[in-house]
């Protein structure tokens, strides 16, 4: 199973000069946990900002009017190609202790964001857990 | 595989009269995405507050000095017993579009919080994805 087969929706992007408050607003409205930070070219990610980044900013008393490029992860965010496997996606999330991966196409353009919840949403994955259930199931 | 077999750490609780700012601070320090809200008895959850709840509060311009019982999910949070299967945990997360489950023991006492990332952290689960990899693997 390839990453592109389970990508569910277009990525939600935000400009690097937007504020943390605007980022929270966009996350809430779009119901996503990660925004891709861009500058002039909306297809070229320059960073990411997650819910966790915002929580940490609050904890550090950083004003919500700070721009997202000061609070997010710039440059060294974790990404995967759309034609890599879901297995590798899970491996990367686990290795880096993250819940989202930026997904790029062969040309390096942004095509989506894969979340750990997208993995659980897959029938095939959830059913792989069901073998455990059979011996003692009453359902 | 049972929920109690993959529970990784004790739950992190917060009192119902703590502020959203204090909740963010605790989430950041403990590196968790969900706090269990309690009143006098630390073993009896009365609600939960998630990172997403805090993001939504910011989006709705709710002051960070608001108490967590005004912002979290009270009473009707989703929970699972520790002796239920990991399969059912994944099913519940998927059904309710959530990333965490409160875990209770037979007596109804709080014993933990299971996150969708705990599922991905399991070798058995991540390896169930690796079958995909074999036909075309170059790794």
UniProtKB/TrEMBL annotation, chains A, B:
Keyword terms, alphabetized: CBS domain
Domain (CBS) ranges: 7-64, 73-133
Pfam families linked to this entry: CBS
InterPro entries per UniProt: CBS_dom, CBS_dom_sf, Diverse_CBS-Domain
PROSITE patterns registered for this protein in UniProt: CBS
Source species, domain of life: Archaea
Stated name of the protein: CBS domain-containing protein
Sequence intervals crossing the membrane: none
